[in-house]
Structures are given as structure tokens and as C-alpha cells.
Design a protein that fits this description.
single chain, Alpha-Beta Plaits, 2 domains, 4 strands, about 10% strand, elongated
């Protein structure tokens, strides 16, 4: 511990490097967990959006709403009028003044249908076909394609996280091994004296394994701090994005179990690096 505190600047750099090596795969793991949570929360409950033609009559809209509300698969139907769509577009686009110059509203009336539960592909296709036969319909969109893409993206993130965990884990071990080796080189005379007076290999090695554990534990603390700051930074836009889909933000993964795991993994990698350095340098330590 004295060696760490006496070279605090160098020790902090080691902690920072190990922390970054741990934070990247750990951050990807948290991202993958939350993507899976999002997919699970909406899986089997896709939405059906219907966009009417700009010349569709109010009667067309009423008939479509009545038809969908009569479907056993549909739980709720929400209508967005052309005027409401235009007002929302003005609010979010910042082009209110320019849009006020338009003589006609270019946005159509639309409605969104939410399903009661799991929907089979056959039932969904049949419902789409029935919806397309209604009057005044311009387009029918199933809001499930993005979930399928989200699932595929989650698999990519998971595999990328695994690859990075291996690569950066090896990097953390090598950085710790180099740092512990420097500690050994700085205390060779003391170690020779210890060996001369009969100290065992275990007694000589043990302090350096502690060094490695401290380096790894400190790296875990830095990694947790980096991930926490990142989550704070991305929380507002992520909350806004999920709010647009009427969903609440519930970040998963960053919990006490995760913190204990990342600190434990960091300490383990540090000990492994220290063992490598000790084996390379102390096994052939000669008494001069």
C-alpha cells in the first residue's frame, strides 16, 4: 500500500487505464440489458398505425375507429387529427412561422391501435388486410419492425461486448503486470535481503498480489464512476425518446450486484496481472 500511495500519480494513471478497459465492455453490457428490457416490454404487443388520405372525410375516420374497436385483438384506439399533428410538428420542429404560411395542412389524420396481448403473425396479417379495405386509408404500418431491428442490434452489442471484454481484460492484466513489475524492480534490494534471511516465496509474493488487487479494485471504482456519469448524461434524451412512445425510463443493470461484480472482476484481473509479473521476475531472483 505504501508503494501505491508514494506514487499516487502513476497509480491513478493505472486505475484510469484499467477503469476505461472495464467501463467499455461493462457499459455495452448495460446497454444490451436495457435493449432486451425494452424489447421484452413491447414484445408481442406491436402497434398498428393507420394514415388517412388528406381528402378522407370524418365519416371515414369514424368508420375506421369503429371497425378497429370491434376487433378482439385491439385494446385501444387513439386518433390524431390533422390539426393536432400539425400543432405537434410545429412544437417539435421549430418551423411554426414557416408552416403558418401554408394554405393547406399537409399532414393527414392518423390513428394508432394497441393490441390486447400476444398477436400471431397470421392474425396480424389478417387485421392489416381488413384495415386496408376501409375507406380513406392511405397507408397501414405495423410498429414492430423497429423491435425486430432492436433485437438484432442487441445481439450485435452483446457479441461486441464479449469481444471487447476479452480484449480489454487482457489489456487490464498487462497494464497491471507492468505496474507491479515496476514495483518489484524498485524493491529488488529489499527482496534479496528478505530471501537471504529465509523469507518464503509466498511471503515475498504476497505484497505484490495486494498491489495488483488494489490496482484492479481502483480501476473498478473508476469504471463505475465513468458508467454512472455516462448514464446521467444520456438520461434526459433517452427519457424524451421513450416518452414519445408513452414509455417510462427504467434503467436496468446498474445496481449493487453490478457494482460488486465490476469491483470483483477488476480486483481479479489485477491479481492475475500481479501473478504474471511476480512469476516472471521473482522466480529467478538471485541473491547477490
Amino acid at each position: 500500500m505504501h508503494f501505491v500511495s508514494s506514487r499516487l500519480g502513476t497509480s491513478f494513471l493505472v486505475w484510469l487505464v484499467v477503469g476505461i478497459a472495464l467501463a467499455l465492455p461493462a457499459g455495452l453490457w448495460i446497454l444490451q440489458v436495457n435493449m432486451d428490457e425494452m424489447s421484452a416490454g413491447w414484445e408481442g404487443r406491436p402497434g398498428l398505425s393507420i394514415y388517412f388520405a388528406t381528402d378522407a372525410s370524418p365519416e371515414d375516420v369514424e368508420l375506421a375507429v369503429a371497425a378497429l374497436e370491434g376487433e378482439s385483438l385491439v385494446d385501444a384506439v387513439e386518433v390524431t387529427t390533422a390539426e393536432a399533428a400539425l400543432d405537434e410538428f410545429k412544437a417539435y420542429s421549430g418551423l411554426g412561422d414557416a408552416l403558418n404560411l401554408l394554405e393547406d395542412n399537409p399532414l393527414p389524420t392518423s390513428l394508432t391501435a394497441r393490441f390486447t396481448g400476444n398477436v400471431s403473425t397470421e392474425d396480424l396479417d389478417a387485421l392489416i388486410q381488413r384495415a386496408e379495405t376501409l375507406g380513406g386509408i392511405a397507408e397501414v404500418i405495423v410498429e414492430k419492425t423497429w423491435l425486430e431491428r432492436l433485437h438484432d442490434l442487441s445481439l450485435v452489442v452483446s457479441r461486441l461486448g464479449t469481444v471487447l471484454a476479452v480484449l480489454f481484460g487482457v489489456g487490464a492484466v498487462l497494464v497491471t503486470a507492468s505496474s507491479v513489475r515496476l514495483a518489484i524492480e524498485g524493491r529488488l534490494d529489499e527482496l534479496r535481503v528478505l530471501k537471504m534471511v529465509g523469507a518464503t516465496q509466498g511471503q515475498i509474493r504476497r505484497p505484490f498480489l495486494y498491489f495488483g488487487a488494489i490496482y484492479g479494485f481502483g480501476g473498478g471504482v473508476i469504471a463505475a464512476m465513468l458508467i454512472a456519469v455516462t448514464l446521467v448524461v444520456i438520461e434526459p434524451p433517452l427519457k424524451s425518446l421513450l416518452g414519445s412512445y408513452s414509455q417510462e425510463l427504467n434503467l436496468a443493470g446498474f445496481d449493487p450486484i453490478f457494482l460488486v461484480a465490476i469491483l470483483g472482476i477488476g480486483s481479479l484481473l489485477g491479481v492475475v496481472g500481479a501473478m504474471i509479473a511476480v512469476r516472471q521476475r521473482l522466480n529467478h531472483l538471485e541473491i547477490v
